[in-house]
Amino acid sequence: MQSFTTERRNNLSVHVLPTQQYANHYVQINLINTRKIIPSAIFVMIVRLLMNSCRRFPSNRLLQQHVWSLYGAELTCHFDYKGDTQIAAITMRIPRVTDDKLITGTQIETIHSAVQLLADMLYDPAIDDQGMFEEMQVQEEMAWTEHHIAHDGTDWDKVVQSRCLEWMGYEGQNRQSALDELRHSVVSHKLHQYYQTLLRNPIHIHVLGDIHPGRIMDLIWEQFGCGFTPDSREEEVEERQGNPGEPREAEAMMMELLDIHQCKINVTYRTGIRYGSALYPALFVFHTLFGATPASRLQVGLRERSPLVYQVISTLDDFRETLHITTGTSSANVTDVLEGIDTEWKRICDGDVSEMELYIAVQNVMHYVQVGFDLPHQVITNHMDQMLSDSQMSTAQFLKEIAEVTPERVASVATKLRKEVTWILYPESEYSA
Question: What pTM does this model have?
Answer without folding.
Answer: 0.88
